[in-house]
Amino acid sequence: MGRILRGIRLGLKSLLLHKLRSGLTVLGIVFGVAAVISMLAIGEGSSRDAQKRFEQLGATNIIVRSVKPTDESQSTGGRPARILAYGLKFADFDRIMATVPTIKKALPIRELRKQIRHLNLEIDGRVVGTTSDYDKFNHLEIERGRFLTESDNARYENVAVLAAETAKTLFPYEDPLHQTVKLGADYYKVVGVTRERASTAGIGGSLAAQEFNKDVYIPLNTCKLRFGERIMNSRAGSMEFEETQLSQVTLQVGALTEVGPTHPIVEAAVKPYHPKKDVDIIVPLDLLNEAKRTARQFSIILGTIASISLLVGGIGIMNIMLATVTERTREIGIRRALGAKRRDITQQFLIETVVLSGVGGLLGVTLGISIPQLIVYFIPEQKAVVTGFSVLLSFGISVAIGILFGLYPAQRAAMMDPIDALRHE
């Protein structure tokens, strides 16, 4: 141990004799380590953000959604149908519940775009006809009042729960509880207000982005009774109708292991009754697993690109150590003449390279932890997570590179003939 400590002191002394050259050599390792940590942090942050969105959908859920078909698929004799009927029906929901035994809970949803009014104030929002489980499935929190109950749905009550922005827009100066809002031709009593919730981003082509803050929630049976199944649209002076009964059904099974076997049973219960492909089935667990695989690949690519900087830093260390060996040829000869063995010379130069790479690694770790914080500060929507694994990996690679690229110069120094080294000018 004493020999190693003495070697470290001699190595530091030798490196400090050429401060600028040693500093420039260390920079290659510093930026390499910082690049690896920063890129892995950005990759990990993006991965966790995507996985969080998938998990919010529920890993034990299976989502069945209505998909509006093209006009051509609904046309008759080359002319678009006046009534475009598509999507999930209540018969589909009843069939699923009767034939799929693994389902623990089911959430039917009907969505409509409507103007929501109170006195002279209005907001264009989404009317969601649903049941009492909607807030649990979608992680909504109640700020005031309550959410819908089974009794509201069973009794066809004209009650509504307002989302945060809807409540602020329609009731800027008063408490919305027990007030009324107008949807279509009917009035609904406000029984609750939800807390503000961040929008969900769109996930590929599977699910569209959702804005929860402009919603109003009413009982599903009330929605069916008040709005019916047909929506009238005016297009280029002509009147057209869309007919759909349910926008979405979210099915929840008891365990992750039941998701895979349940999926084909749900398909068999729905797809044969929709030859026009106006229904889509989404399994968040599959999307989550795919996101994890993509994240791993992304991290490997980013880490590989950043590791090139470390490789360049290692080449810089080898270059500077080869120059150092040439400059210290007489010193090597004197040490050999005084009894130093080849392993002592090898150890001395290896210690110097490890000191260079170790100092560079520590500085790089500090810089690598700081850079993601700056990125998140200036770009809040970008997520970055520095993990202990990435820090240890980057520092370990920097030290390993120091040993690997310092080995050849050290061996070259050790293999010098003492007499030739003493003659060197």
UniProtKB/TrEMBL annotation:
Q: Which domain of life is it from?
A: Bacteria
The residue ranges crossing the membrane are: 20-42, 298-325, 349-379, 385-408
Kindly provide the name given to this protein in its UniProt entry. Answer: ABC-type antimicrobial peptide transport system, permease component
Q: Where is the MacB-like periplasmic core domain?
A: 22-228
Q: Which organism is it from?
A: Singulisphaera acidiphila (strain ATCC BAA-1392 / DSM 18658 / VKM B-2454 / MOB10)
Similarity comment: Belongs to the ABC-4 integral membrane protein family.
Single GO MF descriptor:
transmembrane transporter activity
Q: What topology in the membrane does the UniProt record assign?
A: Multi-pass membrane protein
UniProt keyword annotations, A-Z: Cell membrane, Membrane, Transmembrane, Transmembrane helix
